[in-house]
Amino acid sequence: MKAYYYDNLPGDQRLPHDSSRPLSPDYLSSLGIIHHHFPPSTPTEAHPEVDRIATARNYKNRDTITISPTTLPNYEEKVKNFFHEHLHEDEEIRYILDGGGYFDVRSEGDEWVRIKLERGDLMIMPAGIYHRFTTDEKDYTKAMRLFKEDPKWTPLNRGEETEGNSYRQEYVKMREA
Ligand code: KMT
Ligand code: NI
């Protein structure tokens, strides 16, 4: 895992866009993000710690998605959709089984913070945080997606409605506390 401010320069979203302004794990904590590194023994099986965390946090749902041009129908369109800024009404865990990718999350000043995830990285994002995702130049992310409740998988794209969303407001209050 590596985090830094996104450079906001035009160009392919899959490029690093590293502004050379690094951010620490403590900074991510202040945004309500938790990160661990649990390398899986094979690219198909979660590390036992992942199951332990999921059970402890009462997670009920998970799936595995392989985001690559050969495994995901309409790859280009899906990657564009993942890159639309959105939030979820539930906390979500992303665990990288293989490959890698970038999650961008909004800072408290509404800047993009880019989080580079690699195999074995586990990230817990709080409900209500604005974010987006992209593969990197290798076009290959195999990720386990874990959600607490059923069926809040729907991304809510940022707009007037998400500003008034109660999960969003709770998140902002938590960040400011
Ligand atoms: C999300 O919440 O934006 C995603 O699930 C992206 C795909 S998972 C690596
Ligand atoms: Ni999302």
From TrEMBL:
UniProt-listed InterPro entries: ARD (IPR004313), ARD_euk (IPR027496), RmlC-like_jellyroll (IPR014710), RmlC_Cupin_sf (IPR011051)
Keywords for the protein's UniProt record, in alphabetical order: Amino-acid biosynthesis, Cytoplasm, Dioxygenase, Iron, Metal-binding, Methionine biosynthesis, Nickel, Nucleus, Oxidoreductase
Any Pfam family the entry gives: ARD
Cellular component GO terms, alphabetical: cytoplasm; nucleus
Catalytic activity: 1,2-dihydroxy-5-(methylsulfanyl)pent-1-en-3-one + O2 = 4-methylsulfanyl-2-oxobutanoate + formate + 2 H(+); 1,2-dihydroxy-5-(methylsulfanyl)pent-1-en-3-one + O2 = 3-(methylsulfanyl)propanoate + CO + formate + 2 H(+)
Binding site for Fe(2+): 86, 88, 92, 131
Entry annotated with the keyword Kinase: no
GO biological process: one example: L-methionine salvage from methylthioadenosine
HAMAP family attached to this UniProt entry: Salvage_MtnD_euk
Listed name of the protein: Acireductone dioxygenase
Biological classification of the source: Eukaryota, Fungi, Dikarya, Ascomycota, Pezizomycotina
